Amino acid sequence: MKFKLISSFTFLALFLSTLSQAQVKQVNISRVDIMANLPQPLQIIDWKAMALKFDNTVYDFNAKGRYWPMVWMDSTGKNFKEPTLGMYTAIGDVRQGLPHNKGMFHEALANMGAVLGATLVGIDKSKQQDLNYAGMLRNYFNKDTGWDIMMNNTAPEVALLGGGYGRDWWYDIYPNVLFYAVYDKYPSEPGFEMMARRIAEKFYKADSILNGNYKYSYFDYGQMKPMSTHICAQPDAAAGHAYVLYSAYKKFGDPRYLKGAISAMKALESEKINPTYELLMPFGAYVAARMNAEQGTNFDIAKMLNWTFDGTAVCREGWGFLVGNWNGFDISGTVGSTVDHGGYAFLMNTFDAAWPLVAMVRYKQEYADAIGKWMLNAVNASRLFYPQYMPVEHQTIPDLADVTKGVIAYEGFAKASTFDTLYQTLKAPVAQGDGPKWVPGQNPEVSQFSVYGSGHVGIFGSIVKETEVKGILGLDLLATDFFKQDAYPTHLFYNPYPAPKNISFKVAQTKSDVYDLVAQRYVARNVSKAVNITIPALKSIVLVSIPAQGKMQVQNKCLTINGVIVDYNYK
């Protein structure tokens, strides 16, 4: 690896001709191995720009056009006697909007995801248009029912209209995962600390009651007892419990929450078959890596990553990460069912998998190559959810795409239409959505366009940035690493080409040293602006921008600079 300083005010402090020495051995993920090294056709869109445009367009109460605006004010005052925002789940959903169901039917998955996504790309959602959209999320905290956790709806009156609520466990847990991420960004928001503590208490007590057995359809957090219904058991709920409890431990320091997180992780790890259900398993892999690094646990990260990717789930048959090239389109890396109609990928699941998996690499850099390659595939393929990037011959309703205003995507795409009689002549990949099936005969065709999934775009927007080399992405490992300890800017770069490639790496401080987590050594010293770096073929680097001439210490396998951990696995 060669380095050449760009700025005339910097000088070459370290020259390395190879990375063959002291390299951290990379661990493969078999599902990623069969993805394309360089997916085709290759087109990386500006995800941050998409996130900013989504926020500016969707949060417009005066938006013009059929089915618009996408938001309204719900004044029913559930849980807190204050108005909250309503947001459509899908365009034109007949159950939603101010005239329907008292304006009460809206989902936390949409509302929280949109607030979090916008926040991640730099928008302060606590003071926008003279409204506090972050604070309005309080109404999803179901204290009126005694559950005292975040739920996907504000009240049970509308719960059976769709979106879980006391019958489908992941729907009850994930709003709390989302809330904790929002809380990290808005720690002073009135009521948030109270809600975060109560959620942690509920999850800790629930884990104690479950006592290592998460094989239930859901948990009644009001009666505090596990429940079994026609919906199959979801043991990966333990991953969601662990994520929330560990976040609570990092925030509040209560050792009970750490105990609960470890207990939940042990329950997850003890499963004999793949327990993946919807989207919680990647959070299990992240918590495993982070607690191993920070707490000295020894959870099996590889096991949880294989469960995440493989598509070998039993309850939710085939749920995992898709792999393939459909009629010239690489669709690998997207997330959903690997078996439904030959494969059915979903936008929200793909966005949200990046949240824990990219952040995980800082705690376990052995997965830099695998996650870098997966993200390139996922980021490239995800543009195909949007009608402006999918060829019209692969869309169910291309003639209605104008209604999206360029910011709302199809809910997913499949290898073949999942509608029994409609769109059967379309060839893969088929961009579509399930909205018309939710209210058969009433929901319009445009309900295939997913507002709730599109709102999570800020996850990609905060993590992904293109370099000057097409196909080499800069992935921000800190963007979605919530409640983290102090850390220096850390970025993953993966080279998908069969030859070395040069990139320019901009440093964070005026005078910076650059450390590579994969090589486990400094690769440049006293850089004032940027440094040219060569990435070996089909390999990754993870660069940390550190204040120059910092004090270096090594203790318990952790390399610290000026007291800040840089490398959790230093050898």
Give the structure's gist in a few sentences:
The chain is of the alpha+beta class and 571 residues long. 29% of the residues lie in helices and 17% in strands.
Characterization of the model:
It comes from Pedobacter cryoconitis. This is D-glucuronyl C5-epimerase C-terminal domain-containing protein. With 571 residues, the chain is of the alpha+beta class. The protein has 14 helices and 25 strands. The longest helix has 19 residues, at 192-210. The radius of gyration is 23 Å and the shape is globular. Mean pLDDT is 95; it is low at 1-21.
Number of domains: 2
Low-confidence stretches: 1-21
Helices, by number, come to 14
Roughly what percent helix?
Answer: 25-40%
Quaternary: single chain
Q: At the third CATH level, what is the topology name of the largest domain?
A: Glycosyltransferase
Mean pLDDT: 95
**Largest sheet at a glance?**
6 strands, antiparallel
Keywords summarizing the entry:
single chain, alpha+beta, Glycosyltransferase, Immunoglobulin-like, 5-stranded antiparallel sheet, 14 helices, globular, disordered N terminus, D-glucuronyl C5-epimerase C-terminal domain-containing protein
SSE map:
Elements (H helix, E strand, L loop, with lengths): L2 E3 L24 H4 L13 H12 L12 E4 L9 E4 L20 H13 L48 H17 L6 H19 L7 E3 L4 E3 L9 H16 L2 H15 L11 H15 L5 H10 L8 E3 L3 E2 L2 E2 L4 E3 L6 E3 H14 L7 H15 L26 E2 L1 E3 L15 E3 L2 H4 L10 E2 H4 L2 H7 E3 L6 E4 L13 E5 L6 E6 L5 E5 L4 E7 L2 E6 L4 E8 L4 E4 L2 E4 L2 E4 L4
